[in-house]
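Researcher: Here's my situation. A collaborator sent me these components and asked whether they could plausibly form a single complex. I don't have experimental data yet, so a predicted model of the whole assembly would be a useful starting point for our discussion.
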Amino acid sequence: MKVLLVEDNERVTQFVVKGLKESGHTVDHADNGRDGMFLAASEPYDVIIMDRMLPGEIDGLAIVEALRKSGKHTPILILSALSDVDERIRGLRSGGDDYLTKPFAFGELLARLDALSRRAQGDGAQTKLEVGDLRVDLLNRKVTRGVRSIVLQPREFKLLEYLMRHANQVVTRTMLLENVWDYHFDPQTNVVDVHISKLRQKIDADFERPLLRTVRNAGYTMTAQD
Amino acid sequence: MRSSAANLALAYILLGLAALALFATPLWYAWRVTIQDGRVEILQADAQRLSDVFRREGPAGLAAYITRRVEAQIAGERFLLLADEDYQPLAGNLKAWPQNAPPESGVHTFNVNVNGGTSSGVFVRVDLPGGYNLLVGRDLARFAPLEHRFWYALASAVGFLSIVGAFGGFLIRRALLERIHGIRQTVSAIIQGDLSRRLPIQPGGDELNTLSQTINGMLDQIEQLIHGVRNVSNSIAHDLRTPLAELRSRLEELSLTKPAPEQTFAELEVAVADVDRVIRLFNALLRLAEIDSGLRRSGFVPVDLAVVANDAVEFYLPAAEIKGRTLTLVSDGSAPIRGDPVLLAQALGNLIDNALKYTPDGGRIQVEVRGAANQSVRVSVADSGPGIPDLEKPKVIERFYRGDRSRGTPGVGLGLSLVEAVARLHGSSLQFEDNWPGLRASMVLQLDTAAIAPAVLTPSSSAALRPAYPGRLATGSG
């Protein structure tokens, strides 16, 4: 995908640009609000990474607001050193699609960018999700794998739905916490892992080919590929 | 520089003088009017008597009577004059008819020449039959001494008041300055760094004492906070040193030994985990600071505490099952409050997390949301663990405190501090009780009365309300 990074910190820029290029993405970079605004408005990007605080007169949120007002719907991930929940809400309210606090793991950033760019491609109206022989019917909330039907509790269903919607992408624990449970804090124990292993018991245990896989140092992915 | 006490004394003196003037003026006026009226009455009675003499004995009789009166009069206090129709004096102690006497009869005040001098007098002028004119008057100068005495008395009252006021002001000022000096000394000592000093409180409860007490209360709070901050910064330094020291030695070892790439990468991963520990600590501290600032209160929304508790229990249930603990929820039904759902969830999560950590295998953890007195709801997390000794109960919410038993358990020791901060943000506090055995941590929150309308939460109505969350209340057992 084609990514625009608007960020003034050199270390962060280097870290993100290198990582994205190694993952096979194209990256443009602007180190101030004016250039960032110009690039974001003139070039087509799959996703924009916007630092919250930029040197000069235009700050990140102002750019996001301006882009949204001019009718640009490119997904935007806001990067910020401000971790307050209120700041996060302000970031999302100004038109950002996701919010990531510095410092962050590159895997977390990549997973979120992936999720954002695919969501923009518009699979929101789907009523049936499929990964391999695992099928989820969102209308009557039925889950089947092969010919066998699987009974899930409501939260397990929500967890599976999120993983299926982001099939073939890496989903981090934080993303699951935020999107499945709406928890914006870090629980001290590995509660998410336990939920995943419970879900795995139900959808993967009796089958030869596991679909819900752990990605080391990053999170999980739902995939039928090898 | 004029001190405020001097200003105060001056103001009081001026006020006293104003009061005195307000008091003396009507008195003076009343006195004057009474005396004048009485005087006029006497003059009129006298004039009446002279008119009677005139009617009985004629002009000559009255002239003789007046002459007798004037001769018998000791002092020239009374003016008497009988004149014919051409104002030629017939009898009396005035040499001529006064030129400035008004032509009509009645009571008049004017000056007359007596013994070469001018004297002011009050006169009753009577027109007698046959064109004769009669003046009966009284010398006003006779009353001057009385007036003088009044003014002297007033002046001495003013003087007395001023002296007493000034002296009182001086005394007040001295007493005030003394106390202010005491306060200043204390404050100077506090500025120097001696936070244990308190403002002197004198017996009695005047405004200065009340103020001092309030300031002392503030100083208590500040001392406690500073103390807390000192402890926290010590603990932070300590808690940060451990992962940083590990990180440092790991990196140094890498740069010295230059091991094979695979081993290097493995070591680097552990190094990143070390850094993550530090970051998590900082995040927890920032979150605490954010909550403590009270800014989050602006983001309060209607929250159903029963739902928050239900979600939290549901969230931790699989983890509890794996660890072999029983986690159950007991709820009276809907519990609407105003609050921050994210923070409430985190607080409850921390309490459950804590209980999971300290409850032995096969232990029980029960989360309760129950109606309490005064339109409030008590949310509590009770475990069957070792509990906390009474002495340690206040300490566990201190930042970074960890009881002895928790050594070796992961966590940064901020969990309960966060719960306490969240409770405080919601106008409550975190309470610890014995659960026989175990610990019961609870907080009492005020219900949102605006939101309770149909489904009032009371302990007695619990059964009726249970269907409010069908299928969600029986969340599990281990």
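Model: Some features of this prediction you could bring to your collaborator: The longest strand of chain B covers residues 117-127. DSSP finds eight helices and twelve strands in chain B.
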